[in-house]
Specification:
By secondary structure, the chain is an alpha/beta fold. The chain is built from 10 helices and 14 strands.
């Protein structure tokens, strides 16, 4: 299956994760560095399984300190309230002027369940089914305010056009939501949904609901096979497969500077490790790997996790990205202002009205 998503539209993202860091300043600094490189978005992981800052709150702090880069926190759909999750993600979209995403994840362990005390851990397939339902009700709640529902007419005292507010009345396997949302429709319509589709249980949910699917793969052949599977499944769900971006997730260790990549790490592909596929070498060989995989339509782009956060992100932006820009394979500026625009994704029409298909333009920097 051939994508109409142009070959020149390479997408790049980076993880901001750093162990034991609670100072917002270090996250802001690296998000700005990624933005200088023109990256589509940054991610910040989160889990109930270990200590760490709240990813959504950290990226909300980064939002006013940046102007263009997309901000994608991990927010689990297990043990959380779908109504509150969608409202928080919508709020991030508002405070970032249309740059929010949401990496959907599940919480699988009994230890995480005990933190809440409401239910026991469930099988992974059930959790991902629930995650799909949460993604669906989030879409409905984001649409529950039509564009233009806010009137703010001081003279008449009318704040909202109630004809443009809608109840969703959604009943899922483990929850029900009436709606409408307490937050007006986000600037992007629907903030971008990201799912790690490496494991089979998550892949079906990604094919049905994700705008961006991340896959941890160690070879071009494997990446191409997973991308084709995801696109085919998206078609079976009635989606246009060209509305799904598939990014290869790699750990990158650029500590070797300009030395040649270790055997198995260069243009031939990354090496599998206990932490996932890992590239270890220099920025030049990494640029060649990215260019080769993308030119051959193996993936739509890459999500890169620096092994050493500050060092590797600097070498990624100043070395690898600069080389890709020089070769005309990656943008040198942001042509749009929203994350959907960076990814070449349309703003979804509102299921309740006819005004949702219009474009939204954020403020310029």
């Amino acid at each position: 299956m051939t994508s109409s998503h142009g070959r020149g539209l390479l997408h790049l993202a980076a993880a901001l994760d750093q162990e034991g860091a609670y100072d917002a300043g270090s996250y802001v600094e690296r998000a700005r560095l990624a933005e200088r490189g023109g990256l589509d978005f940054v991610t910040l992981g989160d889990t109930f399984a270990r200590p760490g800052p709240d990813a959504l709150a950290v990226l909300s702090r980064i939002a006013p300190a940046t102007a263009r880069i997309g901000l994608v926190p991990t927010v689990t759909t297990t043990h959380t309230e779908p109504f509150h999750v969608q409202a928080a993600v919508a709020t991030l979209d508002w405070v970032s002027r249309g740059r929010a995403g949401w990496q959907i994840d599940v919480s699988t362990t009994e230890g995480e369940a005990r933190l809440f005390g409401r239910r026991h851990a469930a099988p992974v397939d059930e959790l991902w089914h629930e995650a799909g339902e949460v993604a669906e009700v989030a879409d409905q709640l984001w649409d529950s305010w039509e564009d233009g529902a806010e009137i703010r007419d001081v003279a008449t005292g009318r704040f909202i056009d109630r004809d443009k507010l809608h109840h969703v009345d959604f009943t899922g396997t483990t929850f029900s939501v009436k709606g409408p949302s307490i937050v007006p429709r986000p600037p992007q319509g629907h903030p971008v949904r990201v799912i790690d589709a490496t494991e089979g249980h998550a892949r079906r949910t990604a094919a049905r609901h994700a705008d961006v699917a991340l896959v941890r793969v160690a070879s071009a052949a494997q990446a191409a096979a997973v991308r084709e599977q995801l696109r085919r499944a998206a078609s079976e769900f009635g989606r246009n497969p060209d509305s799904l971006r598939v990014l290869a997730s790699l750990l990158v260790d650029l500590g070797d500077g300009e030395h040649a990549a270790e055997p198995g790490h260069g243009g031939g592909g990354p090496r599998q490790s206990a932490q996932g596929p890992r590239y270890r070498g220099g920025p030049v060989d990494l640029a060649e790997l990215i260019a080769t995989w993308h030119t051959n339509r193996v993936v739509d782009g890459f999500h890169l996790t620096p092994t050493e956060p500050r060092r590797d992100l600097e070498r990624l932006v100043n070395g690898t990205v600069a080389l890709l820009q020089h070769r005309g394979l990656f943008r040198t500026f942001y042509p749009g202002s929203t994350l959907r625009e960076h990814l070449g994704l349309a703003r979804p029409a509102n299921r309740y009205g006819v005004t949702g298909a219009t474009s939204w333009t954020g403020a310029t920097s």
